[in-house]
Design a protein that fits this description.
It is globular, with a radius of gyration of 17 Å. The mean pLDDT is 97. It has an eight-stranded parallel sheet with strand order 3-2-1-8-7-6-5-4. The chain has helices at residues 13-30, 73-77, 89-94, 99-111, 124-128, 131-142, 170-181, 199-203, 220-233, and strands at residues 2-6, 35-39, 53-54, 83-86, 115-120, 152-156, 188-191, 210-213. It has a single domain (2-233), classed as TIM Barrel. The protein is built from nine helices and eight strands. Helices cover 38% and strands 15% of the residues. The structure holds 2-phosphoglycolic acid (PGA). 2-phosphoglycolic acid (PGA) binds next to β8.
Length: 234
């Protein structure tokens, strides 16, 4: 079971340090064994010491170079970062990144041996077309991605469920995860409005191997409560 927190464009460097310390104390005190990952903004990268893996929300697929506003491998190496989110819906849909760029990033960071949390998910209009259209949409987002990569984690996050308080029904989540499981051996996380009050139901579903959480994990207390839930059902 993997419980990952995506801070998006929230938290300063100090807030991130405080969060990390709170989680570390909680994990040690409660002997939490589920895997924990956090994705702070790039300005909050640091050399963290603890079991919780720190990854980046994005990076450009180069060691360094003339890419204004981006960070590359060398900036990540400075902090020992070896985990990256690729394909988050906000990068695809808000920032307009193409599938071709996702594949380029995937291949670059795979080559570097990074753990890659690769996100997929459909917009509402695709879901409304039915399951066949939905799976075809997800398949297109997996195009060019090596699904046999050993350090791959998939995060299924319906776009319409992210930050909205809406989630698919438990049956719907299980159906999609089970369909994905047919082609993906890696852990498959669910994301999209996971909170303390629905984590138990979602994490207990077949083929749900954890969660990627935004707003519901922005407070360290909530993240820790979800860790406790995950620990009880893993
Ligand atoms: P949310 O975000 O938990 O706020 O819906 C999830 C995500 O974007 O990864």
């Amino acid at each position: 079971m993997i419980i990952a927190a995506n801070f998006k464009t929230f938290k300063t460097r100090q807030e991130t340090l405080d969060y990390y310390r709170d989680v570390k104390t909680f994990i040690e005190k409660n002997e939490i064994t589920v895997e924990t990952m956090i994705f702070p903004p790039a300005t909050a990268l640091n050399t963290f010491k603890g079991k919780t893996v720190v990854g980046v929300q994005n990076a450009y697929p180069v060691a360094n170079g003339a890419y204004t506003g981006e960070i590359g491998l060398n900036q990540l190496k400075e902090f020992g970062i070896e985990t990256i989110l690729i394909g988050h819906s906000e990068r695809r849909h808000v920032l307009g990144e193409s599938q071709a760029l996702m594949v380029q990033k995937f291949n670059f960071f795979k080559e570097q041996g990074f753990t890659i949390v690769y996100c997929i998910g459909e917009p509402l209009e695709v879901r409304e077309e039915g399951n066949e259209a939905l799976m075809a949409y997800l398949d297109a987002q997996l195009e060019g991605i090596d699904l046999n990569y050993e350090d791959l984690v998939i995060a299924y996050e319906p776009v319409w469920a992210i930050g909205t308080g809406l989630t698919p029904s438990a049956d719907e989540v299980e159906l999609i995860h089970t369909a994905l499981r047919q082609k993906i051996k890696s852990p498959i996380l669910y994301g999209g409005s996971v909170k303390v009050n629905n984590a138990k139901e979602l994490l207990a579903l077949n083929n749900v191997d954890g969660a990627l959480i935004g707003s519901g994990a922005l407070q360290s207390e909530n993240y820790c409560r979800i860790l406790e839930i995950a620990e009880s059902i893993k």
